[in-house]
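Pilot study result, target chain (530 residues):
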Amino acid sequence: MNNNQNTESGNLQKLINIGRALSREKNINILLEKILIEARNISNSDGGTLYLLKDDNRLNFEIMHNESKNIFYGGSADKVPDFFYPVKLYIDGKPNLNSVSAVCAIEAKTINIKDAYTDRNYDFSGPKGFDKKHDYRSKSFLNVPLKNHKEEVIGVLQLLNAKNKDGITYYSKEIVSLVESLASQASIALTNQLLIEEQKLLFKSFIQLVAEALEKKDKATGGHCTRVPMLTMMIADSINTTNLGPYAKFQFTDDEMEELYVAGWLHDFGKVATPEHVMNKTTKLECLFDKIDLIFLRFELLKRDIKIEYYESKFKNVEDDLSSSNLKNKLIEIDNDARFLKDCNIGGESLSDEMKSRIEKIASKKININGKVVKFLTKDEEENLKISRGTLNKKDIKIMQSHVSLSYELLNKLPYPNHLKNVPFYAGCHHEKIDGSGYPNGYSGDKLPLQARVIAIADVFEGLTAPDRPYKEGYKLSKAMNILKYMVKNHEIDKDLFNLFVSEKLYLKYAKKHVDSAQIDEINEQELLV
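Predicted structure:
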């Protein structure tokens, strides 16, 4: 085998090895960096730039290298500085024929420049300005278009200053052919990753659209569905970066982080089927309308009947101070009862037995409606007003809780890629508790993976501090954190996650962005740690 055959065989093996290396890289920024590095190595170039074509018809600087000047931007290094402006393909609607990289992209052709200082076809004022500033000489350039599977240009690979034993030289035909072959392989790998990124972006945009749709249905729920995944990923990022505690040697993989992200965004997906009058129930008597208004009307009828009874009695008998005083007291009692029921109609933290007894007493009063004597309150109204906490009755709570099972049922119908297969399970476990007292399945202990526990604590904390709930004000941080501590001691949420939540000040970082400033108060973190 002669030297040419040896060289060709060696170059072929290099290209095969490069192709394998590029096809294995999943991080698009590192992939771009590898493409430029391999192109520089195979062509023995001192520097180079890799551009990607953006939707606005501009070539964006993604990777920049200049080995002689120790300049490395993009990829695993710092991003390319903003003062390197993107290259416009068109200026005032006309092709930018002055820029060699623009022409390379527009005409989808390789352009080989032997010496930028003697070339008369293109404007190299940019490289010359760089040369003057850095005491350098940009001489030979090789520009190769990167094309996708549709033969559309997606970027430009530009190499700078080919080197040989004598110094800077031009790019020979053999090197050009070799770089074009590498660019072809690189384009395939890059296209694959760009398509994957586009699919991921589409999927992420779709799941965020679900939250937006819920917000159109109910603003509070939409806000919740947006904030919970944000807090979920804050906790997950902290798990990955902490050097202390039980998570010091633990890290979620990139695939696990994506799976958790999707589960966080879709955890309340089932609420698309929850009736609006339940989701938006701001008072205990609210249904399609607030029935407290009907009760107020009955109070007026009751006052009317008492007045009629009084005046009929007065007409038949001599008026005395006692009967007049009695009328006044009865009217005051009715007004007090009306105010009391109005207050009871607003959801609160608790309702005492004494208050429940008073509701029962009011309910038992009789009223004449259309000639029929009935109890003042219906059984349904009485039971709703006696709700101890919040605004939902047992039937409403069952409907609300069903959203979890429905979330799992609906999400489980999607054909997930393997790394997202646990999304329905994680999303369906956000109301489960460590001690098994949660719903819908009563899972406990080891049956609840870390991902489900992360979503659970994010869901609870957001619910406690949410500033936009129609039935209650968001709690101050101190109260919310003490409730979480109580839940930890009661074996409902994960102790290690709670301690991380406290020690890494995640509660405060979240609060500064997503709760009202009036809710942020002083907290003794040492007293909170469990």
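One observation from the pilot: Residues 314 and 323 are 9 Å apart (CA to CA). A full batch analysis is planned for the follow-on phase.
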